Amino acid sequence: MRQARPLFQRLVSAVITAAGVVLLAAGLLTLASPASGAGPTGSPTGLAVASPSPSGSGAHPSGGPSASPSAAPGHAAPTRIVIADMKIDLPVVTTQTSFPLCNVAQFLVVPDEKLGLPGQLGTSAYIYAHARTGMFLPLLTASQTANGDSMLGFQVQVYTDDDLVYTYVISRVKRHSMDFSIASSVAPGDQQLVLQTSEGPTANLPKLQVAATFVGVAPADHAAAHPTPHPVTCS
User: How far apart are CA 96 and CA 170, in angstroms?
Assistant: First the structure.
């Protein structure tokens, strides 16, 4: 049996090995630099949470296809994320860059650490973006009042490359996170989505993490599931 290592250290090692991407170069997965977005950084490096207590407007999500737990998951890559209550609608991309891009969200897959794809158990999607206008700024703004209670119950829709849409409901908000512990805090047999953004302009600041509980999955229109991304290098 291999010697146990802290989750964060194992995650860094797994990302480098499995993805073949030099994430450490830009502090994407470093102990002191979780995803940031209010400024030039926004990669995954911190995670966290609060307790669920759905709010009115989020308890009855608006817009988008309805979820149906009967649809068979395809375990395909995320292509779009929508949080209608927060006016967030972004293409999701996977790239070989170690620095988060602007105008899109990105996702992280680390199978050994239960960071997988929609439809898989555990943290079935880990999506991050900058806290900038048109990106994940509404998450950061909402978190700064009553620790983000207003977000609890909001619906999150994640479209995938195989024309499915997965529906989640925000259940926890964790501020000032410096680790990935939220990714492993999933009950056996359950699925969750984790969103991450920065709490400041530099990579060495804590990150905001938002966890959402899986509700269901349904077929999606091909065009809706495949928005054209226009990523740019953040200035």
Answer: 29
